[in-house]
Sequence to fold (603 residues):
Amino acid sequence: MRFVLLLLAAAAAAAPRTEPPAANVNTRYIVEGVEFPAGKENRLSQELRDEITGLVGRNYDPEATEKLATRMRRELRAGSVSHRLSKGQTPEHVVLHFEAKGRRIEQQAEISKLAYHSTQGWTADLQFETDHGRLRFGAGVRSDADRMLERTAGFNVNLARVIGNNRVRIRFDHDRLHEIWNRSTRLAAGTNSETTDIYRWRWAARPTISVVITPGLVYTAGVEFQHIQFQPERLTFGFPAARTEAANTVLNTLRLRRSWGPRESLRSTVEAGYSLRAATKTLDSDFVYARHFADGRYTADLPGDNHVTLRAGVGTMSGRAPLYERFTVGDTERVRGWNKFDVDPLGGSRTAYGSVEYRYDNFLVFYDVGSVWDRREARVARHGVGAGFGASGWFLAVAFPLRSNGVQPVFMLGTTF
Amino acid sequence: MPRAAAGLLLAVAVLALAQSLQVSQSADEVRVTAPGFHFLTGKPLERLQNGNTVAFDLLLTAFGEGKTTVLQRAFERFVISYDLWEQTYSVSRMRSRRGQAAHLTATQAEEWCISGITLRASSLPKDDPVWFRLEVRPQEPKQSDPGFDDSGPSLATLIEVFSRAGRSRHAEVWRVETGAVRLRTR
Fold:
């Protein structure tokens, strides 16, 4: 039986994959109307809706309809989108009905990033990936001075597979990273009871599983095994005392993305997330800590190419964690205009930041505020304003820190692809 | 034996008789007919009546030596669609010889498919008994997965085809067989 099925499958592979459109006898009928999936029309882009309604008045074209159903499935993040025909009111006319079922996990494309910050230098994070059916293999190289206290240089590889009814993804990541430190961080490391020494390299292995709870809402759980080689500045018997420690954490992340409203009036998009990273002795970790972080972003696309973006984030951490877990502000995304080493060369175990950005066509202005601090430390809010040019995917801006002494502009540019 | 069980056995026997596969031979071609055997039913029929095309793969196999040896196989794919206004079926043969038939009833469409698949009589033994089996399998609707390439068979599509074969253990496959048949010598 299995052999027969295999033979049928092999024969199917050898046979033409798609039938010519003429194979469907209904192609001679004119599409009289189109019905979108119930309650989901507003979640589709205007462009796609225009193309779908453009089918009306033309002969039924199964191939074009299937392509539009595929795009609809992507935009709705549905498990499947099918279509069916019914007889129209007028003879020899048909009505096209689209139906969406289930939900699926996005095989999220890894985002490559190039950025420049005039006081912190260049950042390059290049990611490559390839799909083989439900399998996705990814690899990347990076030298990133933007996201953390240290410049992180190294490579990463990952393998992901969608399982079940496209609602579950399992993924394995491996990173191997070398760290380069800013002088002010090197000098300050170890002087704060909440921080660790600096380290030279680290590698991580991270198996995770992600589940789509509702369309746009994804929960990810997993563990991360991180080995860190410390080589402090202080000398032991004339030599730096290198040691390797483990920071093994349990990961939990919940992320939401929703868009609604027609593009011609007010199109809103919300992205929000919460993550918890908890290092525990149960996983044989040398560090014990819990790091909570929540962030949100609301974008309103208004008529006439006006766009308003509000962003905010809060984080807190208990216990003693490696420096890469500490919060920073003062980069190309958070509290722009500031240098993160001027804010605090060791970052903080607490953070809060916000931002308002207005963009008209490609011209943008923004105001950012935020702070990092440690337990029992006073919070100092840092403000920054700036202007520049940008669109989705790139920006070029100059930003100024709002402070009483020595206002030095920061030039930034960045692109994601 | 309880009456219900006896009734069930009788129903199975009647169904088996109704779905028998009959063999005919003309020149070097062996054809089969299967009166009472229907594959335009269930989900494939629903998809057809929703205006979609459905591809059916037909596999005709000749066995020898007490059904332990495969002597010959023939495979054909037919694409069927249902005319919403005329309420008739149209069939296209996709593989060995292109051909089309339209304005058919469901039974006529099934018969047209089955009659379009043949074996070579000269390759089959004349003196020994031969068993024939016809299997019909509807193709799953094409997955609209962005990981798939529309340009034709690729590594991804082959992986999908084979993983689909693995998944389809519970998919609908219709099967009908003959008893032992002796082909006539010319």
